From TrEMBL:
Gene3D superfamilies for the chain: Alpha-ketoglutarate-dependent dioxygenase AlkB-like
Cofactor note: Binds 1 Fe(2+) ion per subunit.
MF GO annotations: broad specificity oxidative DNA demethylase activity; ferrous iron binding; oxidative RNA demethylase activity
Descriptive protein name: Alkylated DNA repair protein
InterPro entries the record matches: Alkb, AlkB-like, AlkB-like_sf, Oxoglu/Fe-dep_dioxygenase_dom
Domain Fe2OG dioxygenase: 103-205
TM helices/strands, residue ranges: none
GO biological process, one term: oxidative RNA demethylation
């Protein structure tokens, strides 16, 4: 379902087994060194979702090869199978040939507990126009999609559920977006995840 030009939502894209395997992998990636961290913003605040990076380490506002704002360890490698997953995602969303798809080299994994949110922002630290691929696991959230030029209304609110795919390309690549809330206890019980987890795949252009 296209919610804006280049922004395609594919509900229930990951089956139960793929969700379990991805969650297991995320739990391993979350371990130190270069594991889960709280992102501190330049204004003195902190993001409420905690994050782990693969391939390149994101910090406000750039990319590095080590955890420059955490334990200083080298960032964990970007797994080839996430690259394949990203190409398959873009191909399914836009109907393109996966072999011609972008070469993903960054994964950012955000962990949300019941109180976590993400304010309206744009993802503009990548030097590539390639679409961003988003995968959701666990609790349902409200995802707020805004405009390319302004943080202000109008918004489109969409519920993202466990297993959902969202791809943001073309004019939607630089749109403002955020997560105003997570609905606690709404994830699939058999997954065994308290809270919500979101994986985004990106191309660094570096
Ligand atoms: C639209 N993550 O990691 S996923 C982020 O659920 C981020 O954790 C949210 O915003 C989350 O930067 C939202 C949907 C999403 C992700 C990346 C985008 C939407 C996007 C990049 C460009 C445009
Ligand atoms: Fe974002």
């Amino acid at each position: 379902c296209e919610i804006a030009p280049g922004a395609v939502h594919v509900p229930d894209w990951l089956d139960a087994r793929e969700q379990r395997e991805l969650l297991e992998a995320c739990r391993a990636w979350a371990r130190p060194p270069a594991g889960l961290r709280t992102v501190r913003t330049p204004g003195g605040g902190a993001m409420t979702a905690r994050q782990v990076c693969l391939g390149w380490h994101w910090y406000p506002y750039g990319y590095a090869r080590t955890v420059v704002d955490g334990d200083g360890a080298p960032v964990k490698p970007f797994p080839a199978r996430l690259g394949e997953l990203g190409r398959r995602a873009v191909a399914d969303a836009f109907g393109d040939d996966p072999a011609r798809g972008p070469a993903y080299d960054i994964a950012l994994v955000n962990f949300y507990d019941a109180d976590a949110r993400m304010g309206m922002h744009r993802d503009s630290d990548e030097k590539s126009q390639a679409p961003v691929v988003s995968l959701s696991l666990g609790d349902t959230c409200v995802f707020r999609f805004g405009n390319p030029g302004t943080r202000a209304r109008p918004y489109t609110d969409v519920e993202l559920r466990s297993g959902d795919l969202f791809v943001f390309g073309g004019p939607s690549r630089l749109a403002y977006h955020g997560v105003p809330r997570v609905h606690t206890g709404t994830g699939p019980p058999e997954l065994g995840l308290t809270g919500r987890l979101n994986i985004t795949l990106r191309v660094s252009g570096r």
